[in-house]
Specification:
343 residues; alpha+beta; Lipocalin; twelve-stranded antiparallel β-barrel; 4 helices
Length: 343
């Protein structure tokens, strides 16, 4: 049986070792990003913020922040080309892309003012991670493979992040973080294939296309299979695969190629996931923790707008996610803002 006192004690004793994991993660990824920027000279920097405060809620998946760097495509490093050409399902002809990301996600129950939230509600949890991604783009198809390493638990610093933001905004102080999932290193391998412009048309003088996708994730954080579709409709559609999002979600791209000095498009899409593992619902892998009974099928619906001015892409997405666990009272909605700049 889960014991909150033992859980807090284990969190405290494990925090130092997992904090070292953060230092290691940062020290591993930072030189890679710096080397990529120095080696390639230019690339695309992206910032993504996902939060349910856009709709005045504060529960379940409550916040996600990510920064990403995708170097330019004309001079990929030797390791990226070598690995891409050895993956049998990657296209052998196409432009090799690679990128790096750092992010933090947080999850909370419905009532964050309770010191001891109900056991049937979603556990408090945080996720601090770094990602190295590799992709091959043919112009009509994009294959993406990403390795993510990070840490769940107090070492993710999600508690401090939420309390800091709530203090700045004079919001209710989150009181139940002592019940969060324990420290655990996390690893996840993601794969996505998208077919851009599967159906390309002109409608009422504007461009229109459909981009289906399939993929999945494997690891102790998430394990799932997913498929879905994205529609774009606008003026001078840029070469991208939708705005960048934080996984799990509909796929996007950290890079874009403007088709015109100024362009815009509306988009909408949906995705279905068959979920075998979600640590933020299933609880810690090798220790006692809070958990709830997850739903095996989860769906996302999203719509929004993207605008590009030269080397700047700005987007906003409204996302609706179906119930993820049996005792969840209803679906979730949150907003996603992203800013990408090419240098």
């Amino acid at each position: 049986m889960w014991n909150p006192r033992k859980h807090r004690a284990r969190n405290n004793t494990g925090a130092r070792s997992c904090a070292l994991a953060i230092v290691w993660l940062t020290s591993m990824l930072a030189p890679l990003v710096a080397h990529a920027a120095e080696d390639s000279g230019t690339g695309t920097f992206s910032f993504v913020l996902e939060n349910d405060l856009f709709y005045n809620t504060d529960r379940n998946y409550t916040s996600g922040v990510q920064i990403a760097w995708v170097p330019r495509v004309d001079s990929p490093p030797d390791w990226a080309v070598r690995v891409a050409r050895q993956i049998p399902w990657f296209p052998q002809e196409g432009r090799v892309r690679h990128g790096y990301a750092l992010g933090q996600n947080m999850f909370t129950p419905r009532d964050i003012t309770l010191i001891n939230p109900p056991l049937e509600d979603r556990p408090y949890a945080g996720w601090l991670y770094g990602t190295v991604g590799l992709g091959v783009e043919t112009g009509r198809q994009l294959d993406q493979l990403a390795l993510t390493l990070g840490v769940v638990g107090p070492a993710s610093l999600a508690e401090q992040s939420q309390k800091f933001v709530h203090k700045l905004r004079n919001k209710n102080r989150p009181s139940g973080w002592d019940t969060q999932l324990g420290n655990e290193p996390g690893m996840m391998l993601n794969y996505q294939r998208s077919w851009r412009g599967y159906a390309t048309k002109t409608l009422a003088g504007l461009d229109f296309d459909l981009t289906p996708h399939i993929g999945g994730a494997l690891g102790n954080i998430y394990t799932y299979a997913n498929t879905g579709l994205t529609m774009r409709y606008g003026k001078h559609l840029p070469t991208d695969y939708g705005p960048l999002r934080i996984q799990p979600s509909l796929p996007g791209s950290g890079f874009f190629t403007p088709a015109y000095k100024f362009s815009w498009y509306l988009f909408g899409g949906f995705e279905g996931r068959a979920v075998a593992r979600n640590i933020f619902l299933d609880g810690n892998t090798f220790r006692d923790s809070r958990s709830v009974v997850k739903k095996p099928l989860v769906g996302d619906l999203q719509w929004g707008v993207v605008m590009t001015w030269g080397g700047v892409r700005l987007s906003y997405t409204h996302a609706v996610r179906t119930r993820e666990f049996n005792t969840q009272t209803g679906s979730d909605q949150f907003g996603a803002f992203s800013l990408s700049m090419s240098f």
